[in-house]
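ARCHIVE CARD
CATEGORY: sequence design from structure
SOURCE FIELD: tokenized fold
FIELD CONTENT:
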């Protein structure tokens, strides 16, 4: 049972934790789980109906993320990074309509491509920042991204694609786009395929500034 006055919880480098389970109602608004190397299961966070920020990072033995339906009206920030055994997104992901910052990947290297982002179109009027961490044998980014009408920042890391998809060029809301450790991409391919309205393009740590035209 969590303290009823606690609103932020940070669990860092706790190798003895194997299971987390919080199904009792609690007004926690921020939960971060980081570097818990033996954590295998987060059974439930259904009691955390006020949760606004959830970050799960560097938990290499975690097999899955719990149902997020209870957080669909409160969660505005979701980060799931470097969890090497995850092969599916949590149930309820397609109902997170108010998320404005999303960071996902990398996941299991047994996957042939990035996990499907089916349902992300429901975030289209709120999601402003998206970061995807991939693997070098993944040759494309999810096409569902094209539905995000107000996306301002898109950061792509460690994908094996050689060209940018045509639909990305038409995403006029993007102002900041970055590609990191995408070894098959060169500067010309990025400049050719990036949206024309961007202010800043970052390529493997270097920045290319794009000035908006007056027209």
């Amino acid at each position: 049972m969590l303290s009823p006055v606690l609103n932020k919880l940070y669990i860092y480098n706790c190798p003895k934790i194997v299971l987390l389970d919080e199904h009792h109602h609690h007004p926690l608004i921020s939960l971060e789980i980081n570097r818990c190397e033996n954590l295998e299961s987060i059974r439930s966070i259904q009691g955390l109906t006020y949760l606004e920020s959830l970050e799960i990072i560097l938990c290499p033995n975690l097999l899955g993320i719990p149902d997020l339906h209870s957080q669909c009206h409160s969660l505005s920030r979701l980060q799931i990074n470097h969890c090497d055994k995850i092969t599916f997104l949590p149930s309820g992901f397609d109902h997170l309509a108010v998320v404005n910052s999303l960071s996902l990947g990398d996941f299991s290297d047994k996957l042939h491509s990035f996990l499907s982002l089916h349902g992300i179109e429901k975030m289209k009027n709120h999601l402003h920042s998206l970061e995807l961490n991939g693997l070098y044998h993944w040759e494309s980014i999810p096409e569902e991204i094209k539905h995000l009408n107000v996306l301002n920042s898109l950061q792509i890391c460690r994908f094996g694609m050689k060209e940018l998809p045509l639909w990305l060029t038409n995403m006029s809301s993007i102002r900041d786009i970055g590609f990191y450790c995408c070894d098959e991409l060169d500067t010309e391919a990025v400049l050719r395929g990036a949206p024309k309205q961007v202010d800043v393009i970052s390529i493997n740590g270097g920045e290319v500034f794009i000035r908006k035209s007056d027209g």
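CARD ANNOTATION: The mean pLDDT is 91. The first strand starts at residue 8 and ends at 12.
SHELF: design records, drawer C
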